Structure formats: C-alpha cells, structure tokens
C-alpha cells in the first residue's frame, strides 16, 4: 500500500510546532511521506538545515522531512494538507491547492477564526475539511526556527458537517502517534466559537488601545467594549445554531483573568509593530459579514473595526 502523503503548508508558529512533531516521529517510523511547503527565506533555510523547533518538549531540535517544496504546485498526491497560514494568505493557498489535491485529499486548517471552514468551502467546494481549533504559544524566532513556550499545544478537530462519515481514523492515529494532544469531536464548532469570542473581543480591544489582556479585564471602558463585541458574536452564534454557554461572556473574562496582566494579543502586536498584514479581517470582518448575512446589528464591532483601520 502506498504511504499516506502528509503536507504541511506554512512553517510559522503553528506549522512549525505541529508539523515538527509529525515529522520527527515519522523520521523514525517511516510510516508516511511528509512534505513541508515554505516560501522565500524560510524555504531556503529549511531546505538547507531542516526545520528547527525550540521547545521544552524536544531535546532534538531538528527535523528533516521527505521533501521541502517552495511552491504548492509542486506537491504531488497529498492525502492530508495541514493549512498553517495566517488568514490573509488563506484564499491564495486554497486557489493553489485546488489543482493539486485529489478526490480523497483531506484539508485540516490549523488557524484561528470562525469563518475558516466557509472560506475554504467557497474555493474548494467538494473536499473534506475538518474544522479545527488550535491552542499553542509558538512563533517564528528566525526563518526556519520556531520557538514554543508554555503548555503543550492542543488541537480540537471536528468532523466535516458536509462529509460526516469521511474516513478520518487514520488522521487521529497519526496525531496519536505524533504525541500531539488533541480531541476529536463530531462537532468542533462550539470550541472554535468559544475561542473566537475570546480572541476576537480581546484582540480588537487590545489593538485599539495598545493595552493588554489584563487592562481589558480591569479598565471600565475597555471591559465594556469587549463585552459589547462578545454580545454581538453570541447573537450570531445563536442564530447560526452554534451552542455557546449562556454565561460565555463571564466565562471569557474569567479565562482572560488567568493570563499574566501584561499579555498582549497577536492582533495588537501585528497592528502596532506596523506589519504589512494582520488578522483584523479574521476577527472583525467575519463578525460584520455574518451580522449582515443574518440580519444582526454589529455596531460595536463596526466602530472598533473602523477605528483600528484608521490607525
Ligand atoms: N502562533 C500561535 O501561537 C497561534 C496561532 N494561531 C493561528 O494559527 C494561524 C497560523 O498562525 P501562525 O503559524 O502563528 O502564523 P505565522 O505567520 O507564524 O506562520 C504562517 C506561515 O505561513 C507561511 N505561508 C503563507 N502562505 C504561504 C504559501 N503560499 N506557501 C508557503 N508558506 C506560506 C508564511 O510565510 P512568510 O513567513 O513568508 O509570510 C508563514 O511562515 C493563524 O490564524 C493564527 O491566528 C492559533 C493559535 C496560536
Ligand atoms: C491567547 C491570545 C488572546 C493571547 O496571546 C491569543 O491566542 C492571540 O492573541 O492570538
């Protein structure tokens, strides 16, 4: 039997952490074929030196996949594609994947955001897409070198609602063998939206004020702004039939208060470091789009979206 071909697209914080784990296990077992897709400087570095992960979980920091590709078009017969890019690269990646995937290829987006499944579906309508929620704290230290801090990363992977019976057992086996902490659920949407309500509200408010998670929990104005954004997201989830706890807003503040006071959010860091791209559309754009589609007013998200855009 042919080995399953696993492709990791994007070797940043997420792809560099989870892709490393899958590949390092496979270097010993040889059970799968693993390819990494990276671009520019990252491609050159990983092709030359392998992928480096600095993490308390791995004493051997290097891993070398079966192939490193610079272009998605060079991938052949992928069985599983881990999409590990920021939201602003998603459509571009999906358009390039469409001609290289085969009928049975499964797509596993490892990204934040409530609308990722819908956005992939628009470009890739037929294939199995497993909606997934990711928890990890990892970032690019240098091209080809990813640093992971804190708790072990975790994935909550769900069945595709449109391909509920797609054979995914081999994927859970792969994650198990790779010693990745994961839950597999029939429906992962509650997990995805529970994380979304947190990162969207805290991301937007910290980005507006260049503050911190602690400041959003304690400053009256910031707390109020985050609360109003969460209310809008809760209404959207309700209308979409996605279950969120009734006291999700209190629960979200409780969770946020367990973070060190000064913790920044990724959206805030991206906006205030003047990076060319950021995930504002992922956090606010999605709320505005769903609000308009479902006839739900989203004035607080609209206001903060405009304020951040004007920065
Ligand atoms: N990092 C974290 O701790 C967490 C991140 N997330 C979410 O996960 C998603 C991924 O984030 P993260 O890994 O941090 O992002 P990064 O920016 O660290 O990594 C994304 C990588 O994808 C690469 N990439 C983009 N397009 C292509 C392409 N066409 N071909 C090859 N490589 C490509 C980028 O390349 P280049 O460098 O050239 O731009 C970059 O290296 C986001 O939605 C984020 O919000 C969720 C939980 C935690
Ligand atoms: C947990 C949190 C909100 C802070 O780092 C995050 O994951 C993010 O900003 O993307």
Automatic annotation (TrEMBL):
EC code: 1.1.1.169
GO biological process: pantothenate biosynthetic process
Enzyme class label: oxidoreductase
Domain Ketopantoate reductase N-terminal: 6-159
Pathway assigned to this chain's UniProt record: Cofactor biosynthesis; (R)-pantothenate biosynthesis; (R)-pantoate from 3-methyl-2-oxobutanoate: step 2/2
Residue ranges annotated for the Ketopantoate reductase C-terminal domain, each copy included: 189-310
Catalytic activity entry: (R)-pantoate + NADP(+) = 2-dehydropantoate + NADPH + H(+)
Keyword annotations: NADP, Oxidoreductase, Pantothenate biosynthesis
GO terms under cellular component: cytoplasm
InterPro entries linked to this entry: 6-PGluconate_DH-like_C_sf (IPR008927), 6PGD_dom2 (IPR013328), ApbA (IPR003710), KPA_reductase (IPR013752), KPR-Related (IPR051402), KPR_N (IPR013332), NAD(P)-bd_dom_sf (IPR036291)
One GO MF term: 2-dehydropantoate 2-reductase activity
Chain's role: Catalyzes the NADPH-dependent reduction of ketopantoate into pantoic acid.
Family assignment from sequence similarity: Belongs to the ketopantoate reductase family.
Protein's name according to its UniProt entry: 2-dehydropantoate 2-reductase
Taxonomic source organism: Chryseobacterium rhizoplanae
């Amino acid at each position: 039997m042919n080995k399953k071909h696993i492709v990791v697209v994007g070797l940043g914080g997420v792809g560099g952490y989870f892709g490393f784990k899958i590949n390092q296990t496979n270097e010993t077992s040889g059970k799968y074929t693993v390819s990494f897709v990276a671009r520019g400087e990252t491609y050159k570095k990983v092709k030359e030196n392998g992928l480096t992960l600095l993490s308390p979980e791995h004493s051997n920091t290097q891993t070398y996949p079966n192939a490193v590709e610079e272009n998605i078009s060079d991938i052949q017969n992928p069985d599983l594609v881990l999409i590990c890019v920021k939201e602003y690269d998603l459509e571009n990646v999906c358009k390039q994947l469409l001609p290289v995937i085969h009928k049975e290829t499964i797509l596993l987006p490892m990204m934040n955001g409530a609308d990722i499944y819908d956005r992939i579906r628009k470009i890739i309508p037929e294939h199995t897409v497993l909606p997934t929620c990711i928890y990890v704290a990892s970032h690019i230290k240098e091209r080809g070198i990813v640093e992971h801090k804190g708790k072990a990363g975790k994935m909550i992977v769900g069945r595709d609602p449109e391909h509920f019976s797609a054979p995914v057992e081999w994927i859970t086996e792969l994650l198990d063998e790779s010693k990745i902490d994961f839950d597999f659920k029939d429906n992962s949407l509650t997990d995805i939206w529970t994380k979304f309500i947190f990162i969207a509200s805290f991301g937007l408010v910290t980005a507006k004020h260049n503050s911190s998670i602690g400041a959003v929990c304690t400053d009256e104005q910031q707390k109020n702004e985050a609360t109003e954004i969460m209310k809008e997201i809760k209404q959207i989830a309700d209308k979409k039939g996605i279950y969120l706890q009734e006291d999700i807003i209190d629960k979200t503040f409780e969770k946020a208060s367990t973070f060190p006071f000064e913790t920044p959010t990724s959206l805030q860091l991206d906006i205030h470091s003047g990076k060319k791209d950021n995930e504002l559309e992922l956090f606010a754009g999605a709320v505005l789009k769903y609000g308009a589609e479902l006839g739900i007013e989203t004035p607080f998200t609209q206001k903060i979206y405009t304020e951040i855009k004007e920065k």
